[in-house]
Amino acid sequence: MTHDPSTFNKHTIIAWLEDKPGVLSRVLSLFRRRNFNIENLSVGHSETPGVSRLTFTVNGDDQMVEQAIKQLYKLVNVLRVEDVTEKPAVRREMALIRVKVDAKTRPEVMQLVDIYRASIIDVSMDSLVVQAVGHESRLDSLIDLLSNFPITEMVRTGPVAMTRGAAGKNGNGKHARRMAL
Q1: Neighbours of 3 (CB within 10 A)
Q2: CA 91 centroid distance within chain
Q3: pTM (2 d.p.)
Q4: What is the mean predicted confidence (pLDDT) over 173-180?
Q5: Are the C-beta atoms of 127 and 99 separated by less than 8 Å?
Q6: Cβ contact 54:42 at 8 Å
Q7: At what angle do helices 106-115 and 136-146 cross, to 10 degrees?
Q8: Domain of residue 12, residue span
């Protein structure tokens, strides 16, 4: 079955995984085999010891993503999966941006950093390292403005997400199942 790329949407998926060797590799291989391009991913400890939380973004049509999520549940060490694309959620990304500056441009960069409520976390004679946290579009806007100075190095985490309110507390979503720990 072929899929029309014009129907692809960006999907934000959260998966809770047991902290065991090879689990992340198996999850990523599943998406690779299904020909998904994972735009970004972030993985780290969750509130439960021994369980990691993986947040990743893929492009695909709803049916493709639905099928991939069903396949994720077949992996032994996957405890829970949730597509939070259409859910009210808090989404944040972090960027570290090294900007070339001199005596003349330093105040301009510092003013932009202040306007965007970012932070300067490292200072040298010829550069500043800016830390910015926020929604993807806000970071894109800041990066666009800072590129005029120019940017000499940058790294972004990709978004992490959490559903708003009590909705995420017990995982009663369409693609959620309770962790049995």
Answers
A1: 12
A2: 8
A3: 0.78
A4: 42
A5: yes
A6: yes
A7: 170
A8: 5-88
| Model confidence band, residue 178 (pLDDT cutoffs 50, 70, 90) | very low
CATH number for 121? 3.30.70.1150
Q: Residue 101's closest CA among 114, 111, 116?
A: 111
Instruction: Provide CB contacts within 8 A for 9, sequence distance 6+.
Output: 59, 60, 61, 62, 85
> How far, in Å, CA of 128 to CA of 111, rounded?
12
Angle 23-33/62-72 helices, nearest 10 degrees? 150
Average pLDDT score, the chain: 88
- Could you tell me how many residues make up the chain? 181
Q: Is the dihedral of CA 55, 58, 61, 66 positive or negative?
A: negative
Read off the pLDDT of residues 32-80 as tens digits, 9 standing for 90 and up. Answer: 888 888 888 999 999 999 999 999 988 888 888 888 889 898 888 999 9
CA-closest candidate to residue 174, choices 57, 86, 55: 86
Q: Are residues 12 and 77 in the same domain?
A: yes
The encoded tokens of residue 39 equal 């735009």
- How many domains would you assign to the chain? 2
pLDDT at 172 over 70: no
